[in-house]
Amino acid sequence: AHVAPSLPEIPEMVVDPLAERLIRDRATLDADLTDFGLSPHPVLVVVLEGKSEMVLIPAAMRAAGFTISRNAIQVIDGKGTTRDLTPFIVPMAAPDVTAFCGGPDYLMLTRPPTRILVATDPEGSFSDAKREKTRRSYVTAIAEAMKKHQGAETSEDELDTLVSVFTWGKFCMEFSCFADHELASAITRLKRAGDAPVTVSEVAAARSSDDPNGRLRSLLDRGTTVRKPDLALALVPLVEFEVRVALERNTLADTPIGRLLIKIEEEALKSRPERMIMKGKIGTARLVPRPTID
Q1: What pTM, to 2 d.p., does this model score?
Q2: 12: helix, coil or strand?
């Protein structure tokens, strides 16, 4: 058999290319992969409000050239504006750390941090009155989880940038991102022959009402019911076209979807593909095993 010769012994304290190799040690797997630029963890997780956003926003991201994957920018469904995202955000965003050999007041991250960007309608837990309180509660939960499961103590200020929130503005996503005639045309195309067309004036009246979401739902349910995800799918070509035009004209910041794309890029670029340090220390508290993500 053609057997390769054994590798030579490398003396301790000697710099040698053979010493810079991946080793079979799961305890240091994340750190080893990060040192080689191979970390499989996403740099950013974008949490979208629901099924309609899960149709439109990934399409806009791809039109803008973003790579969507589990180890780059990951997109997930937050399932509404009232759901508590803590059980998801904490396991994803809480940094894995060890004591930093360069000083007792610092921690070394074993992998690049994963940041969370929640994009949602301005309602429920993310209304103007509750938005910052909700965001801060997630940061607090991350700090508490690090102490509970890793014995790591750090200030919330060190973790503050790991979670950010983007809202569409005054209206829901549909009214914020599309004109009345665009919504009326798309809804009418999805109705069956014989159904009364949805007019621009009807959409405008819904927009200016005290309950825009409810009035839009009524228009979708009139005659043949149109599901919001189906409406989103009908609007995808328009979104893709507008994103490409905005990129050519450098006008992304002029539209809500464009501003979200800019925010996604800004958050993704905050994480460097290397191990980093942060202020903090490893305590002596008894550790509790980490929960798994449902």
Answers
A1: 0.84
A2: coil
